[in-house]
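Notebook p. 47: complex prediction with iron/sulfur cluster.
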Amino acid sequence: MDKKRRDFLKIAGISTLAGLGGPAVVDRLVNGTSPVGANAAREYDPDAQGETHKAGAGEHGEAAEGAKTRKRWGIVIDLRKFREDPELAEKAIKVCNYNHNVPHFTNKRHEVKWIWLTEFENAFPEHSQYHKDTKTLETEVLVLCNHCDSPPCVRACPTKATFKSPDGIVGMDYHRCIGCRFCMAACPYGSRSFNWRDPRAGLDMKKINRKFPTRMRGVVEKCNMCVERVGIGLQPACVEVCSESKAMIFGDLNDPNSEIRQVLKNNFTIQRKPSMGTHPSVFYIV
Amino acid sequence: MLEKALRGNKYYWMWLGFLGTFMAIGAICYVRQYNYGLGMTGMSRDVSWGLYISQFTYLVGVAAGGVMLVLPYYIHNYKEFGRITILGEFLAIASLVMCLMFIIVDLGQPIRAFNVMLHPTPHSMLFWDMLVLNGYLFLNLLCGWVILTAEHKEVPPPKWIYPFVYISIPFAISIHTVTAMLYCGLPGRHFWLSAIIAPRFLASAFAAGPSLIVVAALILKRISKFDAGKKAIDKMVTIILYAALTNAFFVCLEFFVAYYSNVPAHKAALNYLFFGITEHGVTYNNLVPFMYGFVILGVIAIALLSIPYTRKKNEFFLGLGCVLMFISLWLDKGVGFVLGGFVPNPLEQITEYYPTPNEIMITIAVWCTGFFILSILYKIAVKVEEDIHG
Ligand code: SF4
Ligand code: SF4
Ligand code: SF4
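Predicted complex, structure tokens below:
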């Protein structure tokens, strides 16, 4: 079967699904693919993180009654808006880099990235097409950590230096990380960076953000979904710079009345590599 | 018994001095890496494990390979292996020390290594790997030492040691299985995501470890009175052959699955390793020569070890066959397996890895440390044997 036909079938299948179930299906995609019920039933305990991946994808939203009391932060990225305003993505990257003192090195080997632009086919290798439509060809996609609901990086980490918080954010403890980079091998999205050298050498120390720590060499880092902002009720920095155009929408995936859930209900969204069973919390509207 | 390591002829000291020189150079290189960070190596965001971890993976196999002597001797009472089992146990010790050193030099924050024990994390395979590796190291130190001491005193080994010897057999299997699980349980790394990784690791380990032991036995026969015995060596060569053929069979299966199913993600790493990938007009093939080496040397080694003349009549060819086998399997597992798994990266881009001179020197130094320890341990074992048999 050629790629075009396969994709046609895929899309046809999804549309049938959407046609049959309507918005309910979207609900189910959000809840069903995330074993929130299982997570919600357990008090947060960093030493029990491994349990998360045991919960299968088969659980339904209905089972997730308790989920309403527990948050699961997520982001929808609307690529249409980014096509309209090509500068938007740069802004989002810049503000993240500034906020989190992400170092910049010219040597590609030392690169550290939290959020960056990549080609559509690199972000979504499972969605390859034979002849791409011009829109897709032109689209560069913002990629960042997916804050997976079943994160392989957390499963792999031997020290719990990377962990999943009860609100769904996959965070890092830079002081516990031993720099074994097992999590980097485990992440199917290439979302993680290692500090191959002192990150301060890649920053203009006069212009750093004093409110956020710089890291030491030898530890792993990645997008932290702006825990430091979300914790005090703000939106992630990258979402905030796009707020006018609503190119990025942040919110609680477990709250059926949240804006993000309305967007998910009314739009066809895709996730990166859903077949990996990671249940990403970042969605894309193409 | 340790004092036996302190008496040797001038070649012994020259050999140790030679190894020591590289160890010293490597130590300086490590200090440089420690002060600058792992940016001193050729690793990157895309190829985040390099020579260190690939050597580690290979050496776990060499350590596990010793079980191919312990098992026939203790379980099947194959008496011929009586004198060389100790070589297997001591090889395991030296290999495990190298493994642990390779892990440490690969850590970004080596000082925090104990966090693995302070925050035990049973869902991480690295945690289990640490447990079984240290457990196997302990078992080999204990068994090797107790049994050699008994031999030294010319008494049978104490009864209480046997349970430890028997436990060490499943432990040997487990160290390589858990090491395979570091790789084969990761989503999105299609080259590693294969249930055959653990059996393949074991097969190549059971060829690589005994190969080195045969080479050591042949050398020891020349330079000392330690003679492993023709029968024992011949039996080992049989084991090596079967293990190497099994490994080759498993590699062929990997090829079949990838190319017959024609799933691009499964083919990608094999394409890169064996044929090179061309993307946007650039060809990436820096590992192809190594993989060709693996296949060609492997075929030559298998031939040398199976043709009766080279196997039985000529010790030079026998030794050469074993050396080539060791190198061939090293190219496969100590180079290709780990590095190839990172290409292409999760975003299907290609970044090639070239180790830096500093990194290579550290790698050589760790190998030299291993051989340093091995030489001392073998020296002791040989001396004990010589004292008994005059
Ligand atoms: S995207 Fe990668 S780093 Fe982020 S949570 Fe998922 S597995 Fe972990
Ligand atoms: S590098 Fe740090 S965060 Fe990643 S697995 Fe190792 S200890 Fe955990
Ligand atoms: S959510 Fe925060 S940390 Fe993540 S990419 Fe956006 S700004 Fe950066």
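Notes: The pocket of iron/sulfur cluster (ligand 2) is lined by residues A 156-157, 159, 161-162, 177-183, 220 (CB under 6 Å). The two ends of chain A are 24 Å apart (CA to CA).
Next step: compare against the earlier run before touching the bench.
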